[in-house]
Amino acid sequence: MKEIIENIKIRFKVSDVILQRQNITFMTTGKESAIPLITWLRDYEGFSHFVLFSTVDWNEDGFFQLTYLLNNPVKKVDLGIRTFILRKNAEMTSAHHLWEQVATYQREIKEMFGINFPGSPRVGESFLLEGWDDIPPMRREFDTKEYSEKTFFPRPGRESNDPATYMKSKLYPNEEK
Amino acid sequence: MVNKENEKDKFLAPENEVHTVIGPEGEEITVDPLKDYFCEAFPKVHEPKNKIVENFINWARAESLWVLGFGTGCGSIEIPPLLSPRYDAFRFGVAMRATPRQSSVIIISGYLSVKTLKRAIRSYEQMQNPKFVVALGSCTINGGMYWDSYNTINRLDHYMPVDVYVAGCMPRPEALLAGFDSLKKRIRAGRAEGANEYASNFKWYKANQKKIIKDWNMPDYNW
Q1: ipTM of the prediction greater than 0.85, yes or no
Q2: Is residue A82 packed enough to be buried (19+ CB in 10 Å), middle (13-18) or exposed (0-12)?
Q3: Which of A77, B55, B83, B116 lies at 20 to 30 Å from B17 by C-alpha?
Q4: Contact B143 A155 (CB under 8 A)
């Protein structure tokens, strides 16, 4: 693992190298160098298996964090490449030419976060939400409770209790808090 | 006002667009699938005719429930054990069918996303009268643990007429058997009139369904 990280550091500008476990490491790189880096990892370092592609919304900071998780089946190590993109007019270079299944991830991320991936096949088509006309639902400013109450006819009289205090009052009604 | 007749329906499925086909003798035929392939008539209310005959028919209906093999959410995993030797729903005259045209009961087994609701409505409408709906799990009653989700419905009875609710998260197969038992009692008493209720409140149900299914690209009644 250390050898791989050293090799990366010679060629690419990476920061925040986190050795999460013995066989999994995360590192952050710039938006422009992310795709060249994973291309190089796939072609020269044996990270041939694409595990997942995920997004985190850092609403207060104005960033989306994208994580490409790659796996090296020979050395049995995982490598997570993180990159930050601006929330405003969010756009990222597509990686569907490296692994075909990336196109599906990108289609989902386009729908759930509104990040565009120009050139990715069928990226504009709806994936899970057919006919969605609100802001993308996984964005942090989207209020899911408010949307649900507005749309789905909430049943009146529904109550929520904290399970611990509720069971305590049921089982031991005479006991003080 | 926008002239809606000239506006192209952006959600219309490509196979449902108006197109021409070549007939066997080379003639061109224009086909409008939404009008030609589907029955345009809305469902009708069927009043029970003769009390004695109806009682007998209701007994027969109650003793052979043909369930559509349609699973949504986590409850669909409770249905296979129901048919296994341990619970053996066949004892009670409950059998599974593969197509809505041959079944009389639809089990909504758990949470329904908007995307699945569209398919569930389509399946429900294709079933022949009389038809019954069993709603399984808390999610169909008030949304359950997904009550504030952006993509799952809260109350099933706003979209299709429910005969029996089985509460729980998740109800075990025994609870489902008890649900079938109360459905049978309901049918025998002549109170399971869900299909008639759907027909008489058709506009209300359709308005509720269209409120959340925004890409409505099928006929209003999928008979």
Answers
A1: no
A2: buried
A3: B116
A4: yes
